[in-house]
């Protein structure tokens, strides 16, 4: 660690904390990897030896790395304490080098700190609410500077709409690990949600964390992306309905997002690397009592609109196909967002088992007294809607709220029932379990049609009623 001469002690402790967090991640990786290796089938009389050899090799290597990281963690904590003690004894303005052998802030053989590109953080904070301004400002910033910002100011970069998603992922995972460490030490209502997010990120291939909202001390709101949000040619956001939370349903939402990604790739180029999907759990959808009101959908629509505006700002010149899939009350929220006079760059919107589109708006907001919502409110966005024959839950949501059935108001319908050997959706859910087939269940007719829609192949879509 001799390269950190003269580093301020708070910075040293942040680096030490990062070493400790990384060591935790290595330990998790050791358990996951060795478990996977152990499950590989080995045949022959020497099978046990072949199995134990790779497992032990992987475990030994990762355990060694974890121990090394913890040693560095402890070393930096000691050095920070020694520097604090020396500075206190020698008076203000005198820094003790990290190796403890001199009194200059510069490393031996240098003439002082090496200048590096810096980001005007004050300016970035001022424009944080304008994703287009953020994207324009960061366009001239190097990846190295953004990477530094992710670790020095994750609180700023993580939620920053308009910033590159790879950098936001770094910052949000930094925020996640710091919050998780704090929650484990001090408790709090967010521990279950934080652990759920970390678990999903650790076990999902190609997973990223483009969104992490920790402002509600009792809840965690997050979005998990699957695929490269900075480069994929087809990106779709999945918006959940009622009775869904990060704490309980994030794994199921991400599984559905993965199903959706695979189907879009199958319907399109065949290259899953060109597709990204996002399990967007960025709002409180409430429970059965909430479905009667539009209030949570309005709040969700505002948050989703900001997310989509951030995406279009971060990728302004791209020919990316942007889609939104809303399920149940999530289609209510998404419908509000996409009919507010700005389509937020969305090319295609799919509604599954809708709890109803909001009937009345006025020009100043989503309040009663406006006009009946119609296809024209969505501008150039293609809107497709479906509801499976056995889905009676969606009917209840519309009945108790008085919202409109989108199938009866000029939107293009497609089938979620069985066809061409593909099973039909058996209820209201979007995932599949046992004999139950969801709207996004693998192999389902609904998922097949949604893949065709989100790749613009409308002629191949199986129409509804």
TrEMBL record:
Region (Disordered) location: 79-115, 413-438
Domain spans labelled DUF1023 = 218-357
Top-rank taxon of the source lineage equals: Bacteria
One Pfam match: Abhydrolase_8
Quote the protein name from its UniProt record.
DUF1023 domain-containing protein
Q: Which organism is it from?
A: Pseudoclavibacter endophyticus
